[in-house]
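Title: Prediction job returns without error message
Component: structure pipeline
Severity: low
Priority: P3
Assignee: unassigned

Description:
Job completed but the reporter wants confirmation the result is attached to the right record. Sequence as submitted:
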Amino acid sequence: MKKADLKSYLCLSSTLFLLVGSFHLVRVIAHWEMMIDGLLIPEWVSLVAFGLTFSLAWAGFHWKKNS
């Protein structure tokens, strides 16, 4: 993979992870309910998802900067 392609990929994927993580954080702050197939998803699931997605976004931006 070319260096420019790798940087583009890392930028795009990190931005998407940042966006998804932001939505999970807003869900917790605003106390929005989330139901999947009739099952109410607790807020702690979004806290875990927030931590995971922000970690992945940070790692992607870090790797982009250092590549």
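Comment from assignee: result matches the submitted record. The chain has one domain: 3-66.
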